[in-house]
Amino acid sequence: MDTMETSRTLNHIGRKIVRIRELRGMKQDALARLLGVSQQAVSRLEQSEMVDEERLKAIADALGVTPEAIRQFNEEALFNNIQNNSDTSSNNSIVNYQFNPIDKIVELYERLLQSEREKVEMLQQIIDKK
After folding, report:
1. What is the pLDDT along the chain (130 residues), one digit of tens a residue?
2. What pTM, to 2 d.p., does this model score?
3. What CA–CA distance (Å, rounded) separates 51 from 114?
4. Among 77, 43, 73, 49, which residue's Cα sits nearest to residue 60?
5. Which CATH superfamily, name and number, covers 3-129?
């Protein structure tokens, strides 16, 4: 793999979105619902090397991260960061990410749960009117 191809692979936004989504334990259809698109649209998005800023912001919001966290996502650095946090003798020179994955997962599930509660409430109102 040449330098240009390596750089392209490392900066492939779609692949970074996939990995962050997977680390969050989120399926494509769940992300699709949050974005208001089809699962197929998310699949195409995840195959895209580049994503426009507006869409990247929406995806970042849905994943509970910043657009910059997606752009700068580096799985190797993340694993090194995790290793450094668990190994008190190691130095802290690895990039410290701006989000705590556990907190963001909890936040995401709370948002999804709230959304489901709102849907149930709307359905209950429809049933009550009949």
Report:
1. 444 444 445 689 999 999 889 888 899 999 999 999 999 999 999 999 999 999 999 999 999 888 988 888 877 666 555 555 555 444 444 444 455 677 778 888 888 889 899 999 999 998 988 7
2. 0.55
3. 28
4. 73
5. lambda repressor-like DNA-binding domains (1.10.260.40)
